[in-house]
Write a structure and sequence with these properties.
single chain, 243 residues, mainly alpha, globular, zinc, membrane
Length: 243
């Protein structure tokens, strides 16, 4: 129980850690660096899902629970995408007024953090001790640049740096609640763990392919982003092998 709380808090606060950078920024960040960060985190999440969550779900339940869980994860994220209007933080040219646009961004990021928190909680319910730490670490690494980009967007909307940092940090707090929910559901409902792990994998794969990769290729930085994705993938594989 202590570990799941610690892992959920750590992954959630990583959003604030990324946003913290905004307090010390003097200039702007190029699209190339934003794309590199997004692609790197996509590689990390890909390794975590394909080498951590999916093999664990297969070993515990076999192919059918894996397939059902992945499909449910993808379907859930698809519903979130349809219900919450997606506004690209960096490429949007819409004329939405500040209050509405800022609210949409904050709501979308907050809701998208729910399945990430579930992924952490479900992973700690697994019988394999290191799975929870691995996924919490991967989600935390993904949350850091996300928090930075949210804070950067808010600052560009004329919000003070301190307020932008606080708001961006709070968007990650939902992961603590959803992490605990995921843990209790899978820990105390028999045979739910492989479905939960597969659900988390499906959610992460959706985020990778639908969000992170397209956004990292939006400014003509496809080659650099591809190298960054592979670097993130190899980095996470190395960590899995070492720990």
């Amino acid at each position: 129980m202590t570990e799941v709380i610690f892992g959920s808090v750590l992954s959630a606060l990583s959003t604030g850690a990324g946003a913290f950078i905004i307090l010390f920024m003097r200039g702007s960040v190029t699209h190339r660096w934003r794309d590199v960060l997004l692609a790197f985190t996509a590689g990390i999440m890909m390794a975590a899902s394909t080498m951590g969550l999916i093999p664990e779900a297969l070993s515990l339940g076999g192919f059918l629970p894996l397939a059902i869980g992945i499909i449910l994860g993808v379907f859930t994220l698809t519903l979130l995408e349809k219900r919450i209007p997606h506004i690209d933080l960096e490429h949007s040219k819409s004329g939405i007024e500040f209050d509405e646009k800022a609210l949409l961004i904050i709501s979308a990021i907050t809701l998208h953090n729910i399945p990430e928190g579930l992924s952490v909680g479900v992973s700690y319910a697994s019988s394999t001790e290191d799975t929870g730490n691995l996924i919490a670490f991967a989600i935390g690494l993904q949350n850091a640049p996300e928090g930075f980009l949210v804070a950067l967007f808010l600052v560009n909307q004329k919000i003070s740096k301190l307020k932008a940092f606080i708001i961006a940090t709070l968007t990650g707090a939902i992961e603590i609640v959803s992490g605990l929910l995921g843990f209790f559901l899978t820990a105390y409902v028999a045979n739910l763990v492989p479905y939960g792990l597969a659900f988390a994998a499906g959610a992460m794969l959706f985020i990778i392919y639908k969000e992170l990769i397209p956004e990292s290729h939006g400014d003509g930085n496809e080659t650099t982003s591809t190298y960054s994705f592979i670097t993130g993938l190899l980095f996470m594989i190395l960590l899995i092998q070492l720990f």
